[in-house]
Amino acid sequence: MNLLTNKTMIQIKQRIGSHDQRGFGLPETLIAASAGVALIGASTLALRTTGSLIDKMDLKAGLQQNTISGKRMMRSEIERGLHLLVKTKQKPTDQLAHTDITHTDYQASLSQCQSLAEQSKQVFNPVFGIKMAELNNPVYYGLSLSSVGKGYALQRCGTSMQLDGRYNEKDKQSLAMVIDDIGVIRCSSDQPECIIDPTKEITPLSELAADTEFVFKEDKTPERSSREPAIRLMTDENRKLIRFIDPTTDKDNIQTSFLKIESVNKEITTYPFYFVAYSRADKRIEKGPDDSEMLDGLFFRNVSSKRMRFLVDGSGSMSACILWGSGFGNRKIFWSGRYYFWSRRSCALTRMESLQHELISLLQELPNDSHISLRSFSSPGYQNHRIWQTSAKSLVKIGHEGARYSAIAFVNTLDDGYPYRWGGTDPWEGLNEAFADNNTDTLYFLSDGEPNYDRNRGRWTQADHASTSGHYAALNNNREIALKVNTIALGLQSKWMQSLAGKTTGDYLHIDKTYVLSSSIK
């Protein structure tokens, strides 16, 4: 090995010293400059990327917030309605003639809505109507263009609603935007690289909005394709239900109706649009759609807590059909009350689908500072005996980045697979977990049946009703903050759930078909 001589070492030190005194030479300067340019470029790109992500998050939040009041308005009116008005492929039977939106009784008021739209140089293509108990003329919802003209919207036409939720019959019909920024479908994946159908590419959206058909066939409006609105509706055989469903075929990447904003650089921001409401004619007109901090749904009432858990039934019996349609489709499996059966008959809504829509609607509207946990129970080891993993260790702030969408995704998986793989009814792990968590002050507990076993894995009997609620009431007495348990019995009366709610100062709600479609006026 050659070793450096002392003289060579001295020369190297001298050169290094001279560089220290004079600064960088030309090669070093060029290298440093290049590195600086690269660093600045990378920083600029990172800032742009971060800015883009922030903008995208803001757009999503905007889409979410802009629909909340509109969905509340629409749900409020549908629930107060006697029945829906729709256009069907076949002439309605005598029993459903009053639900035909093309009936001569409704043409005058409907023509007024379309005239109002023409006067404002807008489009109003009727989607459905609602026959109200307290109004002579129906309220109509129709397809129009978004506020910026790059998408679609749902507009409401009818007698105006006051802030207290009452109608003023003296007011003339008026048009109002309800749901803005309904998406324009690009293709099956709805991504910027999609090739838009060339036959529709040059057709103005206003023409497409006017020509889109909302004719119900087997209780569903037609599937949508390129450049058409990303909404599709479903109803039931009695014209009481409005449900927004997947607007396209089951074979593509689109799974729900959705809202969308598309920027100049073709960056797409979408937000799923979930909605279910039933005409119930309950005449709850003492409250307006936006005059309370409490959120009210069909299942989850008076939601005002900021630290709560949701424990919901994921068992196979949740596949029972609540509302049947009049059409037929692919064979599906349902719970009869005693056994599973296959049917091609169209089910407008199962218990599970109803729960999913109710819970998702609530999750979309919860304030950002709400902390929650989600758990579904069935039988240990079965598909639906599980927790939303993000909340496995503690309550999760719903406004935290990605939490809301993650929670919704969890709820959407509850109807995956065959119902007989979902499991039975075993709520004890979830109940014990809730009572052991001193950071939770409210529990929403929903079940559609009696437990398969008692808390000790013994046979469930009537004697367990009082002892079980008493056990949890005793646990509540040892908590720093008492846990308020709101129980929802879906499909059947539950004395033990009623007792549990009573002993924890919670509310008990029994939901069956009569409750869902309660109608005080026929």
Characterization of this structure:
The protein is globular and about 70 Å long. It contains 11 helices and 21 strands. It is an alpha/beta fold. Mean pLDDT is 83; it is low at 1-24, 29-54 and 282-294. Helices cover 31% and strands 24% of the residues. The longest helix has 55 residues, at 26-80. α6 (351-365) runs antiparallel to α7. α10 (495-503) links the parallel β20 (484-490) and β21. It has 2 domains: 51-278, no CATH class; 307-516, von Willebrand factor, type A domain (Rossmann fold, 3-Layer(aba) Sandwich), CATH 3.40.50. It has helices at 6-22, 26-80, 104-119, 198-201, 205-211, 351-365, 403-412, 428-436, 463-477, 495-503, 513-516; strands at residues 81-85, 87-88, 125-132, 139-145, 152-159, 173-182, 215-216, 232-234, 241-245, 258-262, 268-272, 276-278, 307-313, 321-335, 340-350, 371-377, 386-387, 396-397, 442-447, 484-490, 508-511. The strands form 6 sheets. Strands 13, 16, 17, 18, 19, 20 and 21 form a 7-stranded mixed β-sheet that branches. A 5-stranded antiparallel β-sheet has the order 1-3-4-5-6, sandwiched between helices. Strands 8-9-12 form a 3-stranded antiparallel β-sheet.
